[in-house]
Write a structure and sequence with these properties.
There is one protein chain. The chain is α+β, with helices and mostly antiparallel strands. It contains 18 helices and 16 strands. The chain folds into 2 domains: 347 residues, BirA Bifunctional Protein, domain 2, CATH 3.30.930.10; 91 residues, Rossmann fold (3-Layer(aba) Sandwich), CATH 3.40.50.800. Helix 6 packs across helix 12 and helix 7 runs antiparallel to helix 12. The chain binds one RNA strand through helix 3, strand 6, helix 14 and helix 16.
RNA sequence: GUGGUUGUAGCUCAGUAGGUUAGAGCACCAGAUUGUGAUUCUGGGGGUCGUGGGUUCGAGCCCCAUCUUCCACCCCA
């Protein structure tokens, strides 16, 4: 009989108490902001029908879906000859459900299913784990949380402006000061494609441009040529990588580059409107700037984002001076629910990467002490008498809203004190024969190492501060 | 999915050319100190060296497979 060593599946993690407390601090900060902007929570099942999920993320995405084996006799629908047609054919027959791959598609499914009950514009946020059968790497897991906020059923660019506001508010509340919100517009990218003589190729161009940070101008050049973009078009594109100036100057330069392209003009007009909204909102994103004087909100024509369903404004957020990719991103999509037969619903949404934000806050040591929760006071007992004496005291403390616990057995004092020390419990109350006789309990401040004899009322008023 | 990398005590890691009984620090337990924690001192428990095969007189070390870790690519949060 071999004793099996326990383990967890590849790419998954346990979160210990200290980590959960810090993660909740991030989640709560995000929730508070979402709700302040009128977004309400939504939860959808961990599993969806496979038919809802497949075909929504491209061939690559379909490969990364976790499928759930049908219960019972999962082979009942398969025939021996199915085997010969390969695994994909079998998969369809033995698995009808899958774990959700993101929160956006389940949201679209929800909107379509509940179109008659929903009042548009519909604003929802969703904080739940998603699963991908990707190969894990640092900062990439098979189970991870997404924090999405989307609004559907309105074309108003106020939504885009409010997204900028929410990003700014959340990151500021988390103590971050040096970050950049990059914004761009798919129309501008399409306009650029047209202006350089590659109309309609903005999809390819976006995918490649998105890698500019990573592979550099040379790498982008090579890959664009590989994808069949002409030499002259690439040459016209390259000056755009290094455009400089204020946001207003950038818009001016783009105006002349994009000329009469309809898509380009649409993009410019949208961005101008977003700026207008932000300025009326007195947005801090417009006034704040990072250490090198770059405005917090920055138009970046090289921002592309790989996802193909974006059609309008796109966002990405980078914390400066830390080695970490974007911690938030999103954009407008015109036809998310179209895939479920409900066309013409425009929406805009974005998402925070909690795991990455966690790492950034850890690196910059921005988790406040107040985000630590825990027992405030430990009651130490010596025997049955002191245990019974301590019980009503314990209840009194809890009734007063003080996190209190009684060590559950009359262990050696050294052990009980050690427990308090280990759990960083700041106060200990000793209840022994002397204390029971006098009614004055011994309160020990673990940090100062001082102790005093006090009544329970005195202790409560002291701890409640 | 492609190429590479990693695995030794609860944790972080040593382990020399393949050669007796696999080590250290931290952590844990006990005692010094029967009513006082993070310091100090003394002692103690704990490893089938990721797993399964193979080569060898002999394997933690070499070979194969597998799982895991991390990295680059693909893609993405």
């Amino acid at each position: 009989m071999s004793k099996e060593k326990p383990s967890i599946p590849k790419g998954t993690r346990d979160f210990g108490p200290a980590v959960v407390v810090k993660r909740n601090y991030i989640f709560n900060t995000i929730k508070r902001t979402f709700e302040k902007f009128g977004y309400l929570p939504l939860e959808t099942p961990a599993m969806e029908q496979l038919s809802v999920l497949t075909g929504k993320y491209g061939d690559e995405g379909d490969q990364l879906l976790f499928k759930i084996l049908n219960s019972g006799d999962f082979l009942s629908k398969t025939k021996p000859e199915d085997l010969e047609q390969g695994y994909k054919n079998i998969t369809r027959k033995v698995a009808e459900k899958g774990l959700r791959y993101d929160l956006t598609v389940p949201f679209a499914r929800f909107v379509v299913m509940n179109r008659n009950e929903i009042t548009f514009p519909f604003k929802r946020y969703q904080i739940q784990p998603v699963w991908r059968a990707d190969r894990p790497q640092k900062g990439r897991y098979r189970e991870f949380y997404q924090c999405d906020a989307d609004v559907v059923g309105t074309n108003s660019l106020l939504c885009e402006a409010e997204i900028v506001q929410m990003i700014n508010e959340v990151l500021t509340a988390l103590g971050l000061t040096d970050f950049t919100i990059k914004i761009n517009h798919r129309g501008i990218l399409a306009g650029i494609a047209e202006a350089i003589g590659e109309k309609g190729r903005e999809g390819d161009i976006c995918v490649v441009i998105d890698k500019l940070d990573k592979i550099g101008a040379e790498g982008v050049r090579k890959e664009l040529l590989e994808r069949g973009i002409s030499e002259s078009a690439v040459a016209k594109l390259e000056p755009l990588y290094t455009l400089e100036g204020t946001n207003e100057q950038l818009l001016e330069q783009l105006q002349s580059i994009l000329g009469e392209t309809a898509e380009g003009q649409r993009g410019l007009a949208d961005l101008r409107e977003v700026w207008q909204y932000l300025s009326k909102l007195n947005s801090q994103a417009l006034t704040a700037s990072n250490a090198s004087g770059i405005p917090r909100l920055m138009l970046d024509v090289t921002l592309a984002r790989g996802l193909s369903y974006y059609t309008g404004c796109i966002f990405e957020v980078k914390v400066n001076n830390v080695s970490m990719g974007s911690i938030s991103g999103g954009g407008r999509y015109d036809n998310l629910t179209g895939m479920f037969g409900m066309p013409g619903v425009s929406g805009v949404g974005f998402s925070f990467g909690v795991d990455r934000i966690y790492d950034v806050l850890e690196e910059l040591m921005l988790f406040p002490d107040s985000s630590q929760v825990g027992t405030k006071v430990l009651l130490v007992q010596f025997d049955k008498d002191s245990e019974f004496y301590a019980l009503p005291v314990l209840q009194q403390l809890r009734d007063a809203g003080i996190a209190a616990e009684l060590y559950p057995e009359p262990a050696k004092l050294k052990k009980q004190m050690g427990y308090a020390d280990q759990k960083s419990i700041p106060y200990v109350i000793l209840i022994g024969s002397e204390e029971m006789a006098s009614g004055k309990l011994k309160l020990r401040d673990m940090q100062l190492g001082e102790q005093q004899d006090l009544t329970i009322e005195e202790i409560i008023s002291l701890l409640i501060k």
